[in-house]
Sequence to fold (753 residues):
Amino acid sequence: MGKRIFVTGMGIISAIGKNIPDTFLSLSQGRSGLGRIKQIDTIHKNEILVAEVGFSNSELAAMLGITDQQGYTRTTLLALVAANEAVASAQITDMNQIPTGLISANTVGGMDKSEIYYYDYLKLKKPNSYIETHDCADSTEKLADHFGINGFISTVSTACSSAANAMLLGARLIQNGTLKRVIAGGTECLTKFHINGFNSLKILDPDPCKPFDQNRKGINLGEGAGYVILEGEEALQNPGRIICELSGWGNACEAFHQTASSPDGNGAFLAMKKALDMSGLKPADITYINAHGTGTDNNDVSEGHAIENLFAPTIPYVSSTKAFTGHTTSAAGVVESIISILGMKNRMIFPNLNFTQQIEELNFSPVSELKTNIEQKHVLSNSFGFGGNNTALIFSKF
Amino acid sequence: MSTYISGIGCISPQKTIDNSVFPAEAVNQNALFLQCIQPESYRDYINPILSRRLSKIIKMGITSALISIKDAGISNPGAIITGTGLGCVEDTEKFLMTMLDNNETLMNPTNFMQSTYNTISSQIAIILKCFNYNSTYVHRGFSFESALTDAIDLMQSTVAESALVGGIDEITENHFNVTSLLGHWRTKPQNNLELFEHKQKGTLPGEGSVFFTLTRNKQASTYCELKGIKTVYKPATMDVVAGSICALLAENKLTAHNIDLIITGMNGDQQGDAVYDEICQTMFDTKAVAGFKNLCGEYHTASAFGLWLAANILKWQEVPKISIYKGFRPNTIQNILLHNHVEGKQHSIMLLSKV
Fold:
């Protein structure tokens, strides 16, 4: 078994809150972030529900004390809000006191601006401050510059499992001694580009999504960012700072289809199994699974089978919290990890909203109401991406 | 624990697809941007029914990956990890322009599905039925470097016996036109083979798809040992880069004296190339220096082409004449240091040794 990895800081922004306390409040009060889209002008605005962060870019910039917004995409602004909270909560005063890396996850990059200005660039030959913010790395570098990080920085993009993969790389680079501390997580804003992408795949639910429900119709997209601070065993010198342990991770490729999951959930099974094997835990040790649970026909039955195959006869508490936050795509892995950690710390299981009827092919139902006073030693968070990029993370109580 | 490069697949603006010929005759494209020489047919590598739906970069990626593992005699790599600065540009542009031209109607889901950056790594996994670790890095001049770092770590932590690692980027006409506004490119068609001879502002963009099969053990197909890699982001001075080079050498119990050849990412841009000159003068003054971007052009994962060159030089013990920039070809080439930077922001250093 490798060296232990600890979470010493967390920060989050999504439709259900601009920080950890607000997020916790929304989760424990059953308050969903779903609504009509306000920040983007799309022809779909009256047909879809999204979980949008309730602040304009100017408001986000003001929160951050940024006076000149030029060159700041929404992806970057969200990232800065969440990363600031994570760094503050880990009580980091000198970023370069120990070798610190930054691994951020992202897929839409600066598309929120490219989809507005692309023809200005291409046809009118008119560049602006967003021409260099199109790619995924721009937001990561803005974070690195903000925190003064000059060592290992990277950006992961494995679609909807991106942030989970950012966290596991960070953990491994600490284990092998390359880094002492890593800011890991992801960020994604809503764009017309991927709203239309998911819409063209016909997997958006016009109503509030119903993960793991027999009558589920699809996804509600969301946006947000989350970061955790990961540290190695040196963190044990000051155990009061430790939030929990990242005790296992598993990455597997389903190798089935570019956008569909296999009916038996082979990739999901492998990712969870690897994470369990690594942590040295038995299936029965996992109290709660924060499922990927997108609410699509395909994902939920596939993931459900994988959970049954690995955990039967004793299925842990399962919920998908995507009806709260929407599907925050590249940020989902970290947003839902933080939600899982908050549940574990506060002895709560946050509910899978909008559930009424069990999926016929499955033998279990998700937790549909808030549960309190549930002791959880180990929780598991699933994140699955296009192309079968499946990752599971296990967090353990410290 | 050692890491070896034991298989390569390279599709580039040069005739690099055939691993048995090195060096091949250098190709001058005399263009505004360099484009890859595609295989005559993808039929040998990809099912034609699938191939019809795939854009150029995906086909190049799959094909070079398959050539690489075949070269290494491996059918199921322990990991598939890719790096790409911009991913599937053509599919992204098509989807974006359809959306802008038709006010969000007539959208083609295939373009969207294939626009995600991890398309190539997952398509390779689907073709190989490879359920192992799979990831994609998308960080400008660190994209390929991150993939390599991840792979080396996985192999050292004994999770994987082998790893398939690639650096892939494509250039399209639209992408060239948009990025031209940034002033990084030369404004007239350029003889790429003379790129180092006329230093001025700007360089020549290019593209490529290079995959390496890394193995934990040396085997008959092994090209060289990959001793280590380091990255530096926005170094305040070149001393920081020099410090990283020294650290990498020291970790491998080597000094600057042991380096027989420096391969730099020089690209003909006066300002950018001055950085390499400074490092070479202060650390490797008497050493031979080679370049590679006169063959492949500048792009986010061009360092993968640099690694292709280094691995072949070590295997064949031959430095192509067109690649030598300064000094003479050393008699024996035991150790190569590869230094690349993109716009002075992302620096990477790799150390390779003959086996």
